[in-house]
Design goal:
Elements: E1 7-11, H1 15-27, E2 31-36, H2 39-49, E3 53-56, H3 65-75, E4 80-85, H4 90-98, E5 103-106, H5 111-122, H6 132-145, H7 162-172, H8 177-184, H9 188-202, H10 207-216
Parallel strand pairs: 1-2, 1-3, 3-4, 4-5
Helix pairs in contact: 2-3, 4-6, 6-10, 7-9, 7-10, 8-9
Modified residues (4-aspartylphosphate): 57
Pfam family, one: GerE
Domain HTH luxR-type: 153-218
């Protein structure tokens, strides 16, 4: 049996751009299950259509894209969000990632780059326009350098397997799942499973929190 096509939803307030993106994705074999033109509509339709990947503009009427991302990922941590924006401003990129976006692509990207980014986002790979990945990793490190708020009676940290720790260390170094799989000579799916298991054990929600956890413990320097 063939795998089910990736379900995608496109959110942008410019109808011609939105329709063109949806058409390109559909022609590539992706399943475009919904589109939306404003933030409130995006939240309603995404909850009904249950896409695997949300291709999201940030500059939306009624509700900004970062708020849409925060609400939908908060309600469904398995949802992957690929921001597709005209803005390459560092503040916009970081705010999107902190809100739960998996990747960030500029609208100047080619159709082929967009399609590849959607497919990679669907399996959890962080996808960024060249130059932005280093910015995000730098922000991870800055956040990790800040003292974490103390909590009384903090429970003992859960035990990770040697392989989970190894994968976590490579995630903290900024490697993609594909790069990790090649380095450890395991499948892409196995890397995904280790990351999901680690997120569950640590009670974290996304890669942003996972990288911060790893850097706070110095795993990126080992």
């Amino acid at each position: 049996m063939s795998e089910q096509p990736i379900k995608v939803m496109v959110v942008d307030d410019h109808p011609m751009w939105r329709d063109a993106v949806a058409r390109d994705l559909a022609e590539s074999g992706l399943d475009v299950v919904a589109t939306a033109g404003d933030g409130e509509q995006a939240v309603r339709r995404a909850k009904a259509a249950a896409p695997d990947v949300l291709v999201l503009d940030l500059n939306l009427p009624l509700k900004p894209g970062v708020q849409v991302c925060k609400e939908l990922v908060g309600a469904n941590p398995k949802l992957r969000v690929l921001v597709l924006s005209a803005s390459g401003e560092h503040a916009d990129v970081l705010e999107a990632v902190k809100s739960g976006a998996t990747g960030y692509l500029l609208k100047s990207a080619s159709t082929e780059e967009l399609i590849d980014a959607v497919r990679r986002t669907a399996v959890g790979d962080p996808v960024f326009t060249p130059g932005l990945a280093g910015l995000v990793l730098g922000e991870y490190r800055r956040l990790a350098s800040e003292p974490a708020p103390s909590t009384p009676d903090e429970p003992k940290a859960p035990q990770l397997t040697d392989r989970e720790t190894e994968v976590l260390r490579l995630v903290a170094k900024g490697l993609s799942y594909k790069q990790i799989a090649e380095r450890l000579v395991i499948s892409h799916r196995t890397v995904q499973n280790h990351v999901q298991n680690t997120l569950g054990k640590l009670q974290l929600h996304n890669r942003v929190e996972l990288v911060r956890y790893a850097i706070e413990r110095g795993l990126d320097d080992e």
